[in-house]
Amino acid sequence: MRTKLTLVSLLLAAALPVLAHHSLAAEYDVKKPLTLTGTVDKVEFFNPHIWIFLDVKDAGGQTARWQCEGAPPNNLIRQGWTKNSLKQGDAITIVGFQGKDGGSTCAARTVTLPDGKKVFTGTAGDGGPQQ
User: Fold this and answer.
1) The model's pTM
2) What is d(CA 49, CA 54) in angstroms, rounded to the nearest whole number?
3) Which of 4, 66, 78, 116 is 20 to 30 A from 89 in CA distance terms?
């Protein structure tokens, strides 16, 4: 009995990471691509995914706050990012997909940094189209 309980516990523990991760299509609408250009308000460079908070002006001059989810920090670090790659006030462009709720949340796929460099910020194999 103890062996069965240990085996079941190991199987459940192994499955937890799979259950915890989500595909892009679970929360974002891949049929609603968008491009946002604005200034960085803040960046949360933490697991499981980074978040970039961006102030974007619309055609009427009103500022809207967008929150854009990116890849895990480790993926970005391998591309040369650090937690200081984006700073408050930096002008950037994010290409991504709008949240299914239609609000101001997006999945960032690429970010054009202040120096003009484009960085892939999605997660390979997340179910979204590669850009």
Assistant:
1) 0.77
2) 16
3) 78
Mind listing the pLDDT tens digit for each residue in 13-50? 444 344 445 567 788 998 999 999 999 999 999 999 99
Distance in angstroms (rounded) separating the CA atoms of residues 2 and 96: 49
Closest to 107 (Cα-Cα) out of 120, 122, 118? 122
127 phi/psi in degrees, rounded to 5? 95, -5
pLDDT per residue as tens digits for the range 58-88: 889 999 999 999 999 999 999 888 888 999 9
Residue 90's contacts (CB-CB under 8 Å, 6 or more residues apart) are 39, 40, 113, 114
Quickly count: other Cβ atoms within 10 Å of residue 23's Cβ. 13
